[in-house]
Task: inverse folding
């Protein structure tokens, strides 16, 4: 995961300051030369209406007019334009350390996704309402707005030579500010374009873009009117880009640097005369940062980089996290494809410095000796008799009864809510599983009822990852998702079909994949049960004793039966002969 969201960080025009808005909506400003945190500002309602995009604004004090520039103070010309999730724009004064004014106008109907300053006292914003709005800084109000179509824009940039606006959604569209009409359309990305950067060589203008789900950077040449134009070249990355920076060389080639989501810096050298659209360009050098720990070497992610504000041939970048950062300039080693920088972790360095300062303070305190006046008189305290102490004492059993403790009661689910919020913030798997393994329906219901709305998306992502594991984890995830859908149904329905599908799409896919195998598994289970029952029945039949318990043979009875049979046969034969003789005599007489 990226440390910083897109469009909420950036260097000042002179590169001496760096501003960043963290995941809690707190604005932090660092000095890039001393690595010190200069200012920290928490806006009102920063949790419900977080800052969605920022840009630095520098206004020359010489052009200041009393009527039009009431929000500017003498000597204070550096501001930060803060775009909010409710569609408004505010100006934060770096000299005063507070919000100086709010720009007037209807604004956007939803979240502002990107903001751009054209150095001519005009701000341009695009939002989820598919609108582009122009803001005039001297008059502090909205001056123009137009629609760009049905696609939600995610990034915006300005072309000063042609005075056109470039908007990135699923397609890259170029609009004319004078007529507000579509001039050009570029197609090539498969997802929303989240980063746009522009530069010009003589009279030719170029646009560099990166999308939300692709590991490529596209270079587009702005020319005449046309639709569905392809990119001039494609640059390869190892992960999704979080920020882009470019600079023109004296030789006419362009130097480009990108910071990826995994915290790696890619540097490219692009000769515009010999580029080919068919062949993707790989980075000239990849810069990674690793810690100098003796126990375990861990990567330190890069947060942002800049080529415009660095010395010639160098690159300015910062690394660390949103609380501790270090800024540095280096010459990239183009002779190697991978350049690893071994640096001290900014957090550990800060803790070391803090520990050293506390040790120095402690040592200085140890050298101090208390002053005792020799004229102090010491007196004995009042003595209390043991009988009074015993009378005042109370048995431990009585104390427990007075406390009225119900040992059998379980703690409320509020503790689980706090633990779940901490686990989602810190991404601690052990802490998260300690909460999710509690499968009591009452505990789950109380925990999710008290869970704030802003944590629902993070919880759905964690439950989706849990559903991809073994059966026990799937059962836990299914129980929590079932209760989550019931308790936060109104908030989930308010997201809209697209956002809701984006949140629950992976989870629904996993459920459908597992349910598709249910019929085959049930058939296999039935056949296995038949085989097992047949094997058990065969074993039971084999265990029966088929031999006779007792066999008795009586020789006398068997012989007598045979003789009796022979006698019976002889008697019957004699009778048969007599009958035949009598029959013959009767025939003779007749």
Result:
């Amino acid at each position: 995961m990226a440390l910083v969201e897109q469009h909420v960080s950036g260097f000042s025009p002179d590169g001496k300051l760096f501003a960043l808005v963290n995941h809690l909506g707190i604005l932090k400003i660092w000095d890039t030369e001393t690595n010190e945190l200069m200012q920290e500002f928490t806006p009102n309602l920063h949790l419900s209406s977080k800052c969605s995009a920022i840009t630095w604004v520098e206004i020359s004090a010489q052009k200041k007019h009393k009527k039009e520039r009431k929000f500017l103070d003498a000597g204070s010309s550096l501001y930060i334009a803060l775009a909010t999730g409710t569609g408004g724009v505010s100006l934060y004064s770096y000299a005063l350390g507070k919000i100086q004014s709010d720009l007037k106008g209807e604004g956007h109907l939803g979240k502002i996704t990107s903001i751009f300053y054209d150095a001519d006292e005009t701000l341009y914003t695009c939002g989820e309402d598919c609108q582009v709005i122009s803001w005039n800084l001297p008059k502090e109000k909205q001056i123009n707005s137009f629609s760009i179509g049905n696609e939600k824009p995610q990034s915006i940039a300005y072309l000063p030579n042609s005075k056109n606006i470039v908007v990135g959604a699923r397609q890259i569209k170029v609009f004319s500010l004078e007529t507000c009409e579509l001039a050009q359309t570029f197609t090539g990305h498969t997802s929303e374009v989240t980063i746009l950067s522009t530069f010009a060589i003589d009279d030719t203008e170029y646009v560099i873009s990166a999308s939300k789900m692709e590991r490529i950077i596209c270079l587009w040449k702005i020319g005449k009117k046309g639709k569905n134009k392809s990119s001039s070249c494609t640059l390869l990355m190892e992960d999704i880009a979080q920020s882009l920076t470019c600079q023109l060389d004296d030789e006419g080639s362009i130097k480009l640097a990108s910071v990826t989501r995994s915290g790696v810096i890619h540097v490219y050298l692009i000769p515009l005369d010999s580029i080919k659209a068919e062949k993707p360009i790989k980075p000239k050098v990849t810069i990674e940062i690793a810690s100098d720990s003796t126990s375990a070497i861990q990567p330190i992610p890069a947060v942002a980089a800049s080529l415009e504000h660095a010395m010639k041939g160098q690159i300015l970048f910062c690394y660390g996290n949103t609380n501790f950062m270090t800024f540095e300039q280096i010459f990239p080693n183009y002779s190697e494809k991978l350049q690893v920088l071994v640096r001290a972790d900014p957090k550990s360095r800060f803790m070391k410095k803090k520990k050293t300062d506390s040790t120095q303070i402690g040592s200085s305190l140890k050298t101090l000796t208390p002053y005792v006046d020799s004229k102090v008189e010491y007196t004995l305290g009042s003595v209390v008799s043991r009988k009074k102490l015993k009378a005042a004492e109370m048995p431990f059993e009585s104390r427990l009864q007075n406390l009225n403790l119900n040992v059998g009661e379980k703690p409320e689910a509020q503790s689980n809510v706090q633990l779940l919020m901490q686990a989602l913030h810190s991404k601690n798997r052990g802490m998260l599983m300690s909460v999710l393994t509690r499968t009591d329906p009452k505990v789950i219901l109380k925990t999710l009822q008290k869970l704030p709305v802003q944590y629902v998306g993070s919880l759905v992502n964690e439950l989706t990852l849990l559903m991809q594991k073994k059966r026990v984890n799937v059962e836990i995830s299914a129980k929590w998702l079932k209760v989550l859908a019931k308790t936060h149904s109104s908030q989930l329905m308010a997201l809209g079909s697209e956002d809701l599908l984006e949140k629950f799409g992976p989870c629904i896919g996993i459920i459908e994949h597992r349910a598709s195998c249910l019929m085959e598994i049930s058939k296999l289970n039935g056949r296995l049960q038949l085989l097992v029952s047949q094997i058990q029945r065969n074993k039971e039949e084999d265990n029966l004793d088929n031999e006779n318990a007792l066999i008795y043979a009586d020789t006398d009875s068997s012989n007598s039966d045979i003789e009796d049979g022979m006698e019976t046969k002889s008697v019957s034969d004699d009778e048969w002969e007599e009958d035949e003789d009598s029959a013959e005599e009767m025939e003779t007489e007749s």
Notes: Residues 509 and 515 are 10 Å apart (CA to CA). The longest strand covers residues 193-201. The first helix runs from residue 346 to 366. Residues 248-346 form one domain.
